[in-house]
Amino acid sequence: MRNLIKAVIKGGMKFILSLYLVKIIIGEYFNIFRKKNLYKDIELSAHQEKEVQHFWKSHYGRKISTRWHRLYQSYNGAYNKKYFPEIIFTTKLERKLNNREIAKIISDKSLYPIYYKDIENVRLPDTYLIDNSGIYYNGNRNIITHGHAVEILEDIGECIIKPTMDSSSGDSVHLFNFKKGIDFNSGKTVAEVLEGYNQDFIVQERIIPSSKMSELYPHSVNTLRIITYLIDDHVDHAPVTLSMGRAGNHVDNIQAGGVSVAVSDEGELNRKGYTHFQEIHHHHPDTGTVFGDLKLSKVPEVIRAAKEMHEKTPHMRIISWDFTIDSNEEIVLLEINIFGQSVWFPQMVSGKPIFGDNTEKMMQLSK
């Protein structure tokens, strides 16, 4: 009887995971068809089509749709047979590289200090308040009452509140400014704001970007996305990107209307920046700062930190890290992404395949 119950539970879990996978597949096809107008004029030559299909058939075992290749090329103008389709990454590779159940725990933003407290020359945003499953904690992880939680925030000034488990491309990250128990931005009391978040959220300092980051755009933190992955016996990284807000928005995510630009491993910005819907900018549309004139000196150190942090993150073989440089020129870890990562926009922005010389190995892992 016990074995029968175990078999039923196991079968039920497989069924649920199958439904989840179907949902992802439908979502990816919806997204690529929704963007058809962006790549409809991009046609691969007969030679390029043959080259792509031969490459993928040799290493992946089957032919693929080139819609994603055409989409990436429609932004940057660069053809590359090694572009990695988003649908293969989300439905095959990410699920194989990362343990989903463990990822739910590691993704909790309130636990970052436990994992990464010993990383040299990297800090985390100061934490004022945490809610884990409806229980309030102060910044030192001491349990406190709801009343004490309200007192902590009454005159905290500017702060960021976001969910601990999922920030949904930045659209659930909000800026508040509490004075005398009232948020100047919304007019709500601290208690009303906390009630609106229900549970599982974190309240942290608002990071002020470095002088060079502010020169690009001063109203968002401006995020360096570093994707690291385990290959053989070492950690490698994908092309680096920098995302900036625009039009007064404090969120810099490209899907939230921001501008993204490729960054070399030495910190030099590409001369072109891109938006989600194919606008091309040589300078920031608000500040006028020319991308190609700027170099961020801390980028090599950020890459080093991401790789070191990856070694301290068990069971996860690919991670997307979000960093920034603050006004004191310190590296700040903002967030990590383990499931629902995106490999489309680094390829779109850089014109380079996400896995570079390791593409063939990643294709084989995706079989």
SSE sequence, one letter per element: HHHHHHHEEEEHEEEHEHEEEEEEHEEHH
Estimated radius of gyration = 22 Å
Q: Which architecture of the largest domain would the CATH scheme give at its second level?
A: 2-Layer Sandwich
Tally of DSSP helical segments: 13
Mean pLDDT across all residues, rounded?
Answer: 92
CATH class (first level) name of the largest domain: Alpha Beta
Overall structural domain count: 3
End-to-end gap: 36 Å
The CATH topology assignment of the largest domain is: D-amino Acid Aminotransferase, Chain A, domain 1
The coarse overall form would be globular
Structural class from helices and strands? alpha+beta
- Would you count the extended β strands for me? 16
Query: Uncertain runs with pLDDT below 50, 5 residues or more?
Result: none
Largest sheet: 9 strands, mixed
Estimated helix fraction:
25-40%
Q: Overview of this structure, please?
A:
By secondary structure, the chain is of the alpha+beta class. It folds into 3 domains: 96 residues, no CATH class; 154 residues, D-amino Acid Aminotransferase, Chain A, domain 1 (2-Layer Sandwich); 79 residues. The chain contains 13 helices and 16 strands. The longest helix is centred in the first third of the chain and has 33 residues.
